[in-house]
Design goal:
The structure holds two protein chains of two kinds. By secondary structure, chain A is α+β, with helices and mostly antiparallel strands. Chain A has eight helices and 17 strands. The chains are: A alpha+beta, B alpha+beta.
C-alpha cells in the first residue's frame, strides 16, 4: 500500500504523546511501521524499535535510525476553583501560551478522559503589577476546561498532562502546519525510508527507532543505542528554517534542501559518506552548522556504550516549539529518500571507511 | 402588564439546528469594515421573516418585524456583526505577510495562533521565533504586532492579497456546559437577534439592527439608530466575565460578571447610563419568569447603546450581555445556560412591554419592587 504521507503526518500531529507519556503516538507509529518491519518492540523507557533485517550474511552490521516521537506540552500542578495551574514539559516559551487550545488528559476518575480546554491569561486586575503589560510568566497562566469546578475536581488530578490541540492545517505548496511537527515530521521521514527499503535490497539490518523523552534531555535514545548497539546511527530531527522573526545559522529555504548536521555530534566520515550519496542521487543537501551541539538525540546516542558514530540530518521547520510549526512535505520525502539510498548502498564492510583522520 | 398575561411558551434551546447556525456565525470571517460573511447569513436566515429589510450605507442589516397588537412600541435591538481581527498590509514574499490589528486585541494573544484569511478562509499561522534561538532578555519582551507575521506557507501560490481581513482560525466547540469559540462577541447577539425576529412577540414592532464596526467605536449603530428612529433601544452584546482566581488568593472584587449567573444587565458603562425604567423592566421581567440575571459591575467598556441613546431626540436605552471569559482572543468561553437565559429574558421582557413603562418615574434601579 502506498504511503499517504500527508495523512500519516496529520494523524501523528493529531495524537498526544508528551515526553514520558508516548503511548498514544507510539501506537500510531507502530501501526505504520509494523507492515514494514520484521520485528517490533518497545524499550524500557518507551521508545518503539522496528527491526528490518538485511540480506547480508551473519554477523550482519546494523544501523539505527532515531527520530524522537515525544512532544512538548504542559502538566497540571494545581487546581484552583476549577482552573488548572501548570508547568511546562520540555522547552515552551510562555509567550506563546495565552489563548492556546489544549487537551487535558484527565485521569482522576475511573475512565480517563480527554478534556478540550484552553490556556488563558487572567485579567490585569487579578495579576500582580508585572503581569499587566509584559509577557506573563507561566505561573500566572491558567487552563480553563469550561467545566464546573466540582466536575474538574472529579476528573483532573495534579500530574495530568496537557497537549497542544492545534488542528493540522494545510498551507501553500505542500506545506503543513500544526503542533509537534518537531519531531513527527522526522518520524514520517523514517516511515518513507522504511517503505522505500521494503522494495529494495539492503545488506544491513535497519533498526528504526521512534525515541521517547528527547525533549527532556535525549533520554530514550540513549537507552535505545545501548540496547541495540548499532554499528552507527542516523539521527533525524527538525532544524531551523528561514522564517520571519529569526532563523538559525543555516537559514534553510523550505522545500528546497536537506540539512546535514556538521559539528561535534557527528562523525565526519559518516557525514562525508552521506554527502556522497546525496551527490550521486542528486539530492540537494547543505551543511547545518552546529558549532557546539545540535540539541538532539545525536548528543546522547554518540556517547552511548563505547561510543557510536553518528550522522545527523534535518528537516527545516518554522516556529519551532510553537503549536504552529510549519514543514514542507517535500523536505520530509527527500530526507526519507536520502536515508533509504544511503542504507541500501551500504556494503557489509562499510565501517572500515568510518575512521578518524 | 399583569403577570398572568405573560406566556412562558417561548423556551429557547440550543438543538442541532441552532448550534449549526451559531457555529456558522462564529466561524465566519467578519472583521470590522468587512462584515459580508455574517451579513449574508443574516439576510438568508431572515428572508422569510422580515416585513422590511435594508442594507444601509454603512453595511448594517436593518430588519423590521411588525407586530399585530395595538399601539405597538418600536423597539430597536442591536447586535453587532463585526469582530476584532487583522488586515494584511504588506506582502513580503515567500508566503509571509505583515499585518495590523483591527479592534482591541492584546498583542500577547497573537503569538503562535492559526488564522484564516479573506473570503476563502485561506489558512495561515502567526509564528514566533523558536525558543532555542531567543535569549532570556528577548523572552522578557512582548512580541509586538509589527514584529509578527502571518505565514501562509512558502511557494507563493497563495490567494492572499494585501487588504484582506483575517481572524483567528479557532472553530466553535462545546465544552460540557460551555461553548468555546472566537467571535462570540457578538455572534451570540447576532444569533439571539435572529431568533427574536423569527419568534417576535406580536405586541411590539421589532427593529432588528445587525450592526457593523462596533469594535471601531459603535459606528454602525449610529446610522442604524437614525434610520430606525426607535422609541426604545436595546444592545445585545457580550461582556467580560473576569471571574478567575486572584493570583495570590485575594478575593476577586472586579469580576465584572460571572459565568452561570445569567444575563448581565448594564447600569452604567463608559458610553451609556442605562435607562432606569428599562433596567427595572428587565429585572422585573427576569424575576417574574424566574430567569437568573446579574448586574454587570458598573465600569468601562461599552455597547452599541452608547450611540443608540444619543440618536435624534434621544432614545431610552439599555444593554444586556451574555457574560464571556477571554473576549478578543483566539477563543472566548460562555455558559450555554447564560446564552439561553439571555434570549429568554429579552423575549419575555418584550412580551411584557407596553408604552406605559416609559411614563413611570422610578425611584430605584435595583431588584426590589
Amino acid at each position: 500500500m502506498k504511503l499517504d504521507l500527508k495523512q500519516h503526518i496529520k494523524e501523528m500531529i493529531s495524537a498526544p504523546g508528551l515526553s514520558g507519556y508516548e503511548a498514544p503516538i507510539r501506537e500510531i507509529i507502530r501501526a505504520a511501521w509494523q507492515p514494514l518491519a520484521d520485528e517490533i518492540r518497545v524499550n524500557n523507557l518507551g521508545s518503539l524499535q522496528a527491526i528490518k533485517r538485511g540480506e547480508g550474511t551473519q554477523p550482519r552490521p546494523s544501523v539505527m535510525i532515531a527520530a524522537h516521537m515525544d512532544a512538548i506540552g504542559l502538566m497540571v500542578t494545581g487546581i484552583d476553583d476549577g482552573f488548572l495551574r501548570f508547568m511546562q514539559v520540555g522547552g515552551v516559551d510562555p509567550r506563546i501560551l495565552p489563548g492556546q487550545m489544549v487537551t487535558v488528559h484527565a485521569t482522576n476518575s475511573d475512565v480517563a478522559r480527554d478534556l478540550p480546554a484552553m490556556v488563558v491569561m487572567p485579567p490585569a486586575a487579578l495579576l500582580p503589577k508585572d503581569g499587566k503589560s509584559g509577557p506573563l510568566p507561566q505561573k500566572y497562566l491558567l487552563v480553563d476546561t469550561g467545566l464546573l469546578p466540582d466536575e474538574v475536581k472529579k476528573l483532573v488530578r495534579v500530574g495530568d498532562v496537557i497537549s497542544f490541540a492545534t488542528e493540522p492545517m494545510e498551507l501553500c505548496s505542500d506545506t503543513i502546519s500544526g503542533h509537534t511537527l518537531d519531531n513527527r515530521a522526522s518520524v514520517a521521514a523514517v516511515t518513507v525510508a522504511l517503505e522505500m527499503l521494503s522494495k529494495r535490497k539492503h545488506l544491513w539490518d535497519v533498526m528504526a527507532v521512534a525515541t521517547s523523552q528527547e525533549e527532556v534531555g535525549a533520554i530514550g535514545a540513549q537507552a535505545d543505542a545501548f540496547a541495540i548497539k548499532p554499528d552507527f546511527a542516523i539521527v533525524i530531527d527538525v532544524t531551523f528554517a528561514k522564517a520571519p522573526g529569526g532563523a538559525g545559522i543555516g537559514n534553510f529555504e523550505m522545500g528546497k534542501v536537506t540539512p546535514l548536521t556538521w559539528g561535534s555530534c557527528n562523525h565526519p566520515a559518516l557525514h562525508k559518506a552521506m554527502l556522497e550519496t546525496a551527490e550521486e542521487y542528486e539530492i540537494n543537501v547543505a551543511k547545518d552548522l552546529a558549532p557546539t551541539g545540535s540539541g538532539t538525540d545525536a548528543w546522547s546516542v554518540q556517547v552511548a556504550e563505547a561510543g557510536i558514530p553518528v550522522v545527523e540530518l534535518g528537516i527545516p521547520l518554522r516556529y519551532m516549539h510553537t503549536p504552529v510549526e510549519v514543514v514542507s512535505l517535500k523536505d520530509v520525502r527527500r530526507a526519507g529518500r536520502l536515508m533509504a539510498e544511503f542504507i541500501a548502498n551500504l556494503p557489509l564492510d562499510f565501517m572500515k571507511t568510518v575512521i578518524w583522520e | 402588564m399583569a403577570k398572568t398575561e405573560v406566556s412562558t411558551k417561548f423556551n429557547p434551546r440550543l438543538g442541532k439546528k441552532e448550534l449549526d447556525l451559531l457555529t456558522r456565525l462564529c466561524n465566519a470571517v467578519s472583521v470590522s469594515g468587512d462584515e459580508q460573511e455574517v451579513r449574508a447569513i443574516v439576510l438568508e436566515e431572515l428572508r422569510d421573516f422580515a416585513d422590511f429589510t435594508k442594507v444601509d450605507a454603512m453595511g448594517n442589516v436593518l430588519v423590521r418585524r411588525e407586530g399585530t397588537g395595538k399601539d405597538r412600541v418600536r423597539v430597536m435591538i442591536a447586535a453587532h456583526m463585526d469582530e476584532v481581527g487583522f488586515m494584511i498590509v504588506k506582502d513580503e514574499g515567500d508566503g509571509v505577510f505583515e499585518f495590523r490589528v483591527i479592534g482591541g486585541v492584546d498583542p500577547r494573544q497573537l503569538v503562535g495562533k492559526p488564522v484564516i484569511i479573506g473570503r476563502d478562509h485561506v489558512p495561515g499561522v502567526i509564528g514566533a521565533k523558536a525558543i532555542h534561538l531567543t535569549t532570556p532578555e528577548e523572552r522578557k519582551q512582548v512580541l509586538k504586532v509589527d514584529q509578527l507575521r502571518i505565514d501562509v506557507g512558502p511557494g507563493g501560490d497563495s490567494k492572499v492579497k494585501v487588504g484582506d481581513r483575517a481572524t483567528f482560525a479557532t472553530k466553535l466547540a462545546v465544552l460540557g456546559p460551555s461553548i468555546r469559540s472566537k467571535a462570540l462577541d457578538d455572534r451570540l447577539g447576532v444569533f439571539n437577534l435572529i431568533q427574536l425576529v423569527k419568534q417576535a412577540p406580536e405586541n411590539v414592532d421589532l427593529l432588528a439592527a445587525f450592526t457593523v464596526q462596533e469594535e471601531l467605536g459603535l459606528r454602525g449603530a449610529k446610522t442604524a439608530a437614525y434610520g430606525f428612529d426607535p422609541e426604545i433601544g436595546i444592545a445585545m452584546d457580550s461582556t467580560p466575565a473576569n471571574d478567575l482566581p486572584h493570583y495570590d488568593g485575594l478575593p476577586n472584587t472586579s469580576h465584572n460578571t460571572r459565568l452561570g449567573d445569567g444575563p448581565a444587565i448594564y447600569i452604567m458603562d463608559r458610553g451609556t447610563i442605562g435607562d432606569q425604567r428599562l433596567i427595572k423592566w428587565l429585572t422585573e421581567s427576569a424575576e417574574a419568569e424566574k430567569i437568573p440575571w446579574q448586574f454587570r459591575q458598573p465600569g468601562m467598556g461599552g455597547t452599541d447603546a452608547g450611540e443608540i441613546h444619543k440618536t435624534r431626540a434621544g432614545v431610552p436605552s439599555v444593554s444586556v450581555s451574555v457574560p464571556q471569559r477571554y473576549l478578543h482572543s483566539a477563543a472566548g468561553l460562555i455558559r450555554i445556560e447564560d446564552e439561553l437565559n439571555t434570549l429568554k429574558l429579552i423575549h419575555t421582557a418584550l412580551k411584557r412591554l407596553d408604552r406605559s413603562i416609559l411614563n413611570r418615574q422610578e425611584k430605584s434601579n435595583g431588584k426590589e419592587k
